[in-house]
Amino acid sequence: MTEAKRPVVLILGAGGVGLSLAGALAGVARVAVACRPRHAATVRRDGLVMEGVWGDRIVREIACIAGPEEAPSAPDLVIITAKGFDTRAICEEYAAVLRGSTVASLQNGIGNEEIIAEYAGTVIGGTVTTNFSVVGDGHVKAKSQSSPMVLGLWSGPDDESLQRLVALIRSAGILVEAVNDIRSAKWSKSLLNLSVNPICALLSIPVGKAADLRLRSVIEHIVSETFAVMEAGGVRTAWPSAKDYLDYLFSVQVPDFATAYPSMYYDIQAGRKTEIDLLNGYVAGQGERLGIQTPYNRCIADLIRFREIDGK
Q: What's the pTM?
């Protein structure tokens, strides 16, 4: 494929997910990524160092940008990988670029796509179950991938954009699949994040420790409340009941990520804001709207918010 025919992809959010995706897609697309100055300087000088399940290599074919004035004027695709609490601010900043564009969200939590849909023409929702880390400036590692990336049309008329995105990501060697009900997929992915991540962040433990019998009751209540909210909201997942999901959580997901610390843990340790308002906080908010009691989700969200402010 010649350089002129390669699709132009703009990635907004240069953490572990965004930089890894930029590096993977650089071989099949012309990629621009909004980078922090420290990452941008290193990538421009030395290239992006990638390690892990997405390949070990140095990638130099990435354009690092500092703001919308440096962004491609008409990208074929925009992918937002930023933290969910920054979604609206990013959409406001890049509103002129997003207007009428196809925008994909590869972000944790629930609710990002609703915000993006206010600015974009076609919105594609997505989930990623790969464990990423930023090793250093311009250096990322994809530690493990327990299942394929999932993408689905959230809003807008352009289903062809979804098929093109899936084909592009697959051509970069990344496992990916398209689904008809991306809302179900987003909630399904969030179940792991809201049931385990806050507890690991609060207690400074890896995911495997969440299987401790002394923690299971709390996790069971969080999941049961979430399933009640999903049922009231008409959301269905692959697990018919909270018990079915809990069986899967402790037999498959927790062992798969046993030695990993969730991103929320690193956020707390670094004194950064977390995505709790798009996880347990979102469940609590939807529960209030639907008349469903969610004391465990509300409590865990308040505890994380306290840690965000008061740190260790």
A: 0.85
